[in-house]
Amino acid sequence: MDSASGSNDPADPPAGKSTATVTPPPPPPPSRYESQKRRDWNTFLQYLSNHRPPLTLSRCSGAHVIEFLKYLDQFGKTKVHVTGCPYYGQPSPPSPCGCQLRQAWGSLDALIGRLRAAFEENGGRPELNPFGARAVRMYLREVRESQARARGIPYEKKRKRAAAGGGGGGAAGGVKVSVEVDGGDAGGEGGGGAPGDATV
Ligand SMILES: [Zn+2]
Fold it and tell me: Do 88 and 81 contact (CB within 8 A), yes or no?
């Protein structure tokens, strides 16, 4: 980093000392992910402020998040056939039908990932994160499965490494397996040793 100050600089200007107009590099523009995350966060805050009855972030639960996701469906662009539609389960129907457009599962999943991160970056406590709520995970799974059926998308069961899919985050959440060893009478008492035949 000291190339500018070297004395053996061949391009040394003879006259003035007005060297080094150090222009600080402009801060790197936020990545697409970051700016998308900010937009999503603002959208959600906007949604909260329009909510009736009024809703604050701190009172927001997984159920509200699901409500938000359903609200977003009206802006969706993915045709999801209802079970009564003749094209149910067809990936590319030959003609249009009256089924509604919805948000694709992948979009919702990614959105939740961004909002979940944004919540904590904005001071929310992880254990109170409504975007990480179990109900939200269940809802997303439901959407994925029903959309896969409705749109004729084959399941990808082959790959075990779903990690590359992004977003989801480990299901590290609430599952606490409490192994209960019922101690009962197996306690310390009797176990005094009593070795069969003590080798003297
Ligand atoms: Zn349809």
Answer: yes
What residues sit around ligand 1, an ion, with C-beta below 5 angstroms?
A: 81, 85, 87, 97, 99
Nearest partner of 111 among 47, 174, 27, 175, judged by Cα:
47
8 Å CB contact between 147 and 80: yes
Cβ atoms of 103 and 78 within 8 Å: the answer is yes
pLDDT in tens, 100-115: 999 999 999 999 999 9
Spacing, Cα 111 to ligand 1 middle (Å): 25
What does the pLDDT read at residue 25?
83
Nearest to 105 by CA among 149, 63, 64: 149
CA of 97 to the centre of ligand 1 (A): 5
Report the separation in Å between the CA atom of 106 and the middle of ligand 1, taken as the mean of its atom positions. 20
pTM metric for this prediction: 0.64
Which residue shows structure tokens 């992948």?
106
**Segment (H or E) for 139:** helix 134-150
